[in-house]
Predict the structure.
Amino acid sequence: MSQSFHLRETNAIAVLTLCRAQASNALTLEFWRSFPAALRELDATGRIRALIIAGEGRNFCAGMDFSVFTNPAMQDTESPAQRSHFYHLARLMQDALTCIERMRFPVIAAIQGACVGAGLELAAACDLRFAAEDAYFKIAEIDIGMMADVGSLQRLPKLLPDAVVKQMAYTGLSLSAARAAHFGFVNEIAADGAGVMAQAQQAAAAIAARAPLAIAGSKDSLLYARDHGVAAALERAAWVQAAIWNTAEIKSAIAARMSKSEATYEDLPALPRI
């Protein structure tokens, strides 16, 4: 059980809710340890088809909890050994969010209020983002004398215009939900948090109704294409399609479409445990 979030699962859809509303869901060291472990456990079951990440209270996530900066690794970096410790702590945090991309199912962010600093980096790693009208996005690290280092500077240029990301990174520009939607960073906007969750649930249900293997293959191919050239990505897609091709499910889905009925699909295989 994490002190930073709670999990529930209904009909193959999991909801992970950040639960430190009194601190605007700022992320403590405990989050960075427990979050990737929780996601890997969800993926290992094979039964989860979509995950929604939300935040309790008025804000999605206010970024890194300031208690993180009291960690000894961040307090004293004079020696090479101490700087090495700092480096590995940063890599652990980066890997915690990259874990979102490694999941075989899509991950959806349901955002209201502040989505800043590490909270923005969390949202940027998700596959889909739905936001309330009051949501805003900010690379807040620059306001406390540091650069963002857990994913904003790497993922946002793939999701927003380069000049906008640079202005956010250099000046702390706050991006409204409306502008984020205009640029395509946010899929849809709702009036409030309840509306955002309804949008996220609707998207998750649509994903869960489709073939999990095809969804997993699509996610793999999209992420690979983001980071590689077209030729390499096409070759990767051919290998993935050959690996996941399921004649029986495709025939069943075509028959269901012809008869205007709902197709059914097997869950993903459970992952082996060592």
In short: The chain has a mean pLDDT of 96. Residues 80-102 form the longest helix (23 residues). The chain has two domains: 5-208, 212-258. The longest strand covers residues 5-10.
